[in-house]
Amino acid sequence: MIVLGLTGSIGMGKSTVAAMFADAGVPVFDADAEVHRLQGPGGALVPAIEAQFPGTTGPGGVDRGALGEAVVGNAEAFRRLEALVHPAVAQSRAAFLESHRAAPLVVLDIPLLFEAGGWQAVDRIAVVSAPADVQRARVLSRPGMTEARFEAILAKQLPDEEKRARADFIIDTGAPLEDTRVQVNRLIACLVTPRGG
What we know:
alpha/beta, two-stranded antiparallel sheet, 51% helix, globular
């Protein structure tokens, strides 16, 4: 099995590319979706988060706005939150890999692959990238997004050019969707075709 780490900065189209891998039959582990599940109604992390950050959960699970208020700008609180979330996501990821161990290729969709050290646990890395003006337009069109919030998110992420430099593969999403799908399908063919066969 080849474990492909899929990453990219905000607004680069990573979720769209992950869906293309899934559409092609490649098992995809979505780290963000797993965090939402763990923090959603009845999620395994809800009691621990409430214990650490009282008043941040309710019947719908974690109130992301309230939790954000509790940790934003507070490095120590953010570390405490990560100490709860990261091991739970790692456990889910291990279970995913075990359940798909017969697959020739799996994708780990991890937004902060480089920033959180996850790149060490994958065989190859694909970075989803688009021109900076395309990225900015995509992100600023999101509901509730502001220039200041966008800049704050970018400041926490490794710059796109550094991600591209560290990648084994770059998937360009600045082109039409069908062009991106062709790139994804070529990459799958490249990774799952037996060597010398």
